[in-house]
Amino acid sequence: MAKEKIEGCHICTLVTPGEPQVLLGKDKAFTYDFVFDRDSQQHEIYSACVEKLIEGCFEGYNATVFAYGQTGSGKTYTMGTGFDMNISEEEQGIIPRAIKHLFQGIEHRKGEAQERGEQAPEFKVSAQFLELTNSL
Ligand SMILES: Nc1ncnc2c1ncn2[C@@H]1O[C@H](COP(=O)(O)OP(=O)(O)OP(=O)(O)O)[C@@H](O)[C@H]1O
Question: Where is the chain membrane-spanning (predicted)?
Fold first, then answer.
């Protein structure tokens, strides 16, 4: 059982239905580009927040996805960097989804060029992975 449940912690946030807004307690509201409630699935987060960034890379745009939050808040889970080999496809997080999307996009563009009788474009992919911690 999760440590929070054992310690009797309560949920202290509420998502305003239909709004990208989080309510903290009774009177503090925070609005963001997107807000996902507890029952959100990995694929929903990917399609809403990341998919377009990968497509943007093919147009020459840079993109950053940054997970920030207190310990145990779900950064590793959401980013999909736990590299648990037994994880189901549904539960895969942002990074494996983004990598798959990127390489499928490359193959697709090469295939399209070949179909048009053009020279296949060249792609160079380099990867860096950073995990910053400031544990007290
Ligand atoms: N959306 C979710 N659905 C199901 N389980 C989740 C979800 N988010 C987090 N968890 C689970 O909650 C626990 C803590 O999450 P996670 O390790 O991702 O937190 P974290 O923010 O990376 O923590 P830390 O900063 O300590 O590394 C893990 O067991 C993880 O599998």
Answer: none
